[in-house]
Amino acid sequence: MVELIKGSEFIDERGALRFFNDFDMGEVVRFYEIAPVDTKIIRAWQGHRHEKKWFHCLNGSFIINLVKVDDFDNPSDQLVPEKITLKSDNPSVLAVPKGYATGIKAVEEGSRLQVFSNFGLEASKKDDYRFPLNMWDALWQ
Q1: How many other CB atoms are found less than 10 A from the CB of residue 106?
Q2: 95: which of 45, 47, 50, 109 lies 20 to 30 Å off by Cα?
Q3: Burial of 71 by CB count in 10 Å (0-12 exposed, 13-18 middle, 19+ buried)?
Q4: 3-131: which CATH topology?
Q5: Is 100 exposed, middle or buried (0-12, 13-18, 19+ CB in 10 A)?
Q6: What InterPro entries does its record include (predicted)?
Q7: Residue 88, CB half-sphere, CA atoms under 13 Å: how many?
Q8: The pLDDT of residue 110
Q9: Are 30 and 117 in contact (CB under 8 A)?
Q10: Which sequence spans correspond to the domains of the chain?
Q11: Helix (H/G/I), strand (E/B), else coil: 1
């Protein structure tokens, strides 16, 4: 089940502290950051049959479309993506279970997205499925 884990923020004269006390990182084995060159780039679709991912917007905002893939070898083109917007000023972590394909697009210039995975790089490559951008009718605005 896709889950949005709410974070929070504490601000005082020293600055801001964002925290995600409900985000259990016990499964995480690596993380990386995506910083799109502009807001026109759409990174879609990348799926994982077994890998789980978590997305956190560090700066700006992102549209993330998700599709529960029915058949990784021959997916239906009738699947309907779910659109979620992550914003850095509304701290949250999007947990995407195995079996999904995702597509991402920055909404603001300078946006940065942190991605956590429960798979190492080599295992992730063996579980990597790419589908054409026009495979599913997603909303990118």
Answers
A1: 25
A2: 109
A3: exposed
A4: Jelly Rolls (2.60.120)
A5: buried
A6: RmlC-like_jellyroll, RmlC_Cupin_sf
A7: 16
A8: 97
A9: yes
A10: 3-131
A11: coil
